[in-house]
Specification:
The chain is α+β, with helices and mostly antiparallel strands and about 450 residues long. The protein has helices at about 1-45, 70-75, 90-95, 110-165, 170-180, 200-250, 250-285, 295-310, 330-345, 405-415, and strands spanning about 60-65, 95-100, 105-110, 290-295, 315-320, 325-330, 355-360, 365-370, 420-425, 430-435. It has a five-stranded mixed sheet with strand order 5-7-8-10-9, covered by helices on one side. The protein has a three-stranded antiparallel sheet with strand order 1-2-3. A two-stranded antiparallel ribbon has the order 4-6.
Length: about 450
């Protein structure tokens, strides 16, 4: 009962606010209508037969005496005994409009007839407005209750549910114990309470555990692979250092061999560490991209010129002269293109062709292509070729390949630009990698 009274009180408050707003809206409308009607009438009185309106003219309304009224005005002032006589009619019927231009004589126009007519129209409009307000007062509260009924029903149902639901403390203790027993790194770690009411919570926690487990496995695999890649050059350097320490100090052949091997392994390790740092900074969000608009064709041409200069063992070809402009970090995208070209050169026989091309694909996306006549990639390895430290055997062996991070870096760069790869490869025929940018 108290809730019903509260709802009625709220409905009445809403209704009163709506009536007040409607009243002031009507009042403003009446004032504007009066000002506009009188202003327009005065304008047309001052501009008969197309004469110019003079804003600087002196103008006012004057009150006539009874003996100065015209027959029409006297008739309007003596209608007290008729049913259509209105308040203020006698006063309005005695008004005349007087205006005096800056250059010219004073002009007087009888305004009583217009003012009485407009006053009657205004009273009629006011009567209609009062009827509307009265109707709103009588029915507004009921309409407000009707509109607020769904909210009231929701509130009532929520209160009923709160009152009917008993707080089962043991259930929450059971859930807490089940969560505390979970090992996020375990292969089959799952939250399972057997309570149907907690099924949604179980699914959310299990989904989170699965993502944590995948992240942990990726991190563990990354650390293991990085350790394996660093172990080999360190072992080589240590072996040659020991050999030099034992008997290579006076043997020039062993000395030169050891120095060359140590320099080679140091360069390999330096490159590996730089790649690891790049991926680590990228994963942590510390690598910032400088987005600018640039010519994709000019960028690929620069990579082409560099490749021709540093790699005389292969025949490089540049196709497509369409001036395609994209927005991105030009240095990053150039790095990705260099990685793809370097990868193509590693696994392409000497004097074979490597083709670079810029084009638009069938979707209208801007693309660049790196195509080689190399050993190709097995179909089963294509889905994994961009994974970190992945090398197919023998196509990605350490002897003729790198650490298996180049393509991962290229993919990270292209992903951050919203791009994608299209890979077509056949073993012993070659590989074509297309990099596209939708924007």
């Amino acid at each position: 009962m108290n809730e019903t009274k509260k709802m009625r009180s709220i409905s009445r408050s809403v209704s009163r606010g709506r009536v007040a707003s409607l009243f002031f809206a009507f009042l403003l409308l009446d004032i504007l209508a009066a000002l506009l009607a009188v202003g327009v009438w005065c304008y047309f009185q001052e501009t008969p037969q197309g004469q110019d309106f003079q804003p600087g003219a002196s103008r006012h309304f004057a009150l006539l005496a009874e003996d100065q009224l015209s027959p029409e005005g006297q008739e309007l002032t003596h209608q007290e005994d008729r049913w259509f006589h209105t308040p203020l009619q006698s006063f309005l019927a005695r008004l005349q409009y007087v205006y005096k231009p800056a250059k010219g004589g004073e002009t007087t126009v009888y305004a009583g007839r217009f003012l009485v007519f407009f006053w009657r129209c205004l009273l009629l409009m006011t009567l209609v407005q009062l009827l509307i307000l009265l109707w709103e007062i009588l029915t507004g509260s009921r309409k407000s209750r009707k509109h607020l009924a769904p909210l009231y029903e929701i509130t009532r149902m929520a209160q009923d549910l709160t009152a009917d639901s008993a707080f089962d403390e043991d259930k929450f203790h059971h859930l807490e114990d089940a969560i505390s027993r979970i090992s996020p790194t375990g292969p089959d770690a799952r939250l399972q309470t057997g309570d149907a009411e907690l099924e949604g919570l179980e699914q959310a926690v299990n989904s989170l555990l699965e993502r944590m487990r995948q992240s942990y496995q990726q991190q563990a695999r990354f650390v293991s692979d990085a350790s394996h890649e660093l172990r080999t050059p360190i072992a080589v350097i240590q072996g040659y250092a020991n050999m030099l320490d034992r008997w290579g100090k006076e043997d020039e052949t062993i000395l030169e061999e050891s120095i060359a091997a140590i320099k080679s392994e140091s360069d390999h390790m330096k490159k590996l560490v730089e790649q690891l740092l790049f991926l680590a900074r990228g994963d942590s969000g510390r690598t910032k991209l400088t987005m600018t608009e640039f010519s994709l064709h000019e960028m690929i041409k620069e990579v082409f010129d560099e490749s021709v200069m540093i790699d005389p063992k292969h025949r490089y070809h540049l196709k497509g002269d369409e001036d395609i402009t994209i927005t991105g970090d030009v240095s990053m995208i150039k790095q990705a293109a260099r990685i793809l070209v370097d990868n193509a050169a590693k696994y392409t026989p000497d004097h074979a062709d490597i083709i670079l091309q810029v084009k638009k694909n069938e979707k209208g996306h801007s693309c660049f292509v790196v195509q080689d006549e190399g050993i190709g990639i097995a179909g089963k390895d294509i889905p994994h070729m961009f994974e970190r430290f992945f090398r197919s055997d023998p196509a990605r062996s350490r002897e003729n390949g790198g650490a298996g991070l180049g393509l991962s870096i290229a993919k990270w760069i292209i992903d951050r630009h919203g791009g994608y790869f299209q890979v077509l490869s056949r073993e012993d025929i070659g590989t074509r990698i297309t990099v596209c940018f939708p924007g």
